[in-house]
Structures are given as structure tokens and as C-alpha cells.
Specification:
Elements: E1 3-7, E2 10-13, E3 18-25, E4 33-39, E5 45-51, E6 58-60, E7 68-73, E8 78-83, E9 92-99, E10 115-116, E11 120-125
Parallel strand pairs: 2-11
Antiparallel strand pairs: 1-3, 3-8, 4-5, 4-9, 5-6, 7-8, 9-10, 9-11
Length: about 130
């Protein structure tokens, strides 16, 4: 069965860094674009970043531009989200998701994604 597992979350001070990982099983990241989403307490789920399956084109939401970097290691069926200069407002549960139809463009719309991980908590203290 398809499974996505996020890891790398934790507690970090403002200005610090974390690297999140999303590892897929039961599917190949050669065929799926991968998105990162986050949900803060009491708020809706919002896109953070995504990467296409065909040409590794990327998208970043405005609040994280210049601070976060998405990358893939398709041989390991893994996508990473490197987060730097973290701010308290980055505190959220971070989810990865897979979209079968994102060969050339990845989608910022959560309803485009077919599979979701369970999330990993990121907490940034001030």
C-alpha cells in the first residue's frame, strides 16, 4: 500500500534550522510530484512548497520564500524540506503529499494530491 512518512520535526529556537524528510513506499517519486503543507493550531492547511516529478520545477509560498528549500533524491524515494531562519509563525504540523499528475507543474492546491503522510510537528520558540 502507499505510504508517506514525514520525519525531522522538533523544537528549535527562532533563527534555527530543520530539515524535514518525506519517504514514500508503495509508489515511486519518479511518477508523483510532492508537496509540503502545514497546519498551525486553529488554522487551515496551507501550502508550503512543492516539486514536480518530471523536471523538478518548484513552488514556494510567499511566507517561506528565501528561507525554505525543497529538493528530491529520487533514488531514495525521498523529498526534503530544508528550513532555515525559522520563525515562531512557522510552528505547525508539516505534511507531505503526492500528486500523480504533477510531471511538469506541481500544484499548490491540496485537493490535487492523492496521498498524504501523517505529519511531523515543528515548533519554533521565540
Amino acid at each position: 500500500e502507499v505510504q508517506l512518512v514525514e520525519s525531522g520535526g522538533g523544537l528549535v529556537q527562532a533563527g534555527g534550522s530543520l530539515r524535514l524528510s518525506c519517504v514514500g513506499s508503495g509508489l515511486s517519486f519518479d511518477d508523483y510530484s510532492i508537496g509540503w503543507f502545514r497546519q498551525a493550531p486553529g488554522k487551515g492547511r496551507e501550502v508550503v512548497s512543492c516539486i514536480s516529478s518530471g523536471d523538478d520545477s518548484t513552488y514556494y509560498a510567499d511566507p517561506v520564500k528565501g528561507r525554505f528549500t525543497i529538493s528530491s533524491d529520487r533514488a531514495k524515494n525521498t523529498v526534503y524540506l530544508q528550513m532555515t531562519s525559522l520563525k515562531p509563525e512557522d510552528t505547525a504540523v508539516y505534511y507531505c503529499a503526492a500528486d500523480l499528475y504533477g510531471e511538469y507543474y506541481c500544484s499548490s492546491r491540496s485537493n490535487r494530491y492523492d496521498h498524504w503522510g501523517q505529519g511531523t510537528q515543528v515548533t519554533v520558540s521565540s
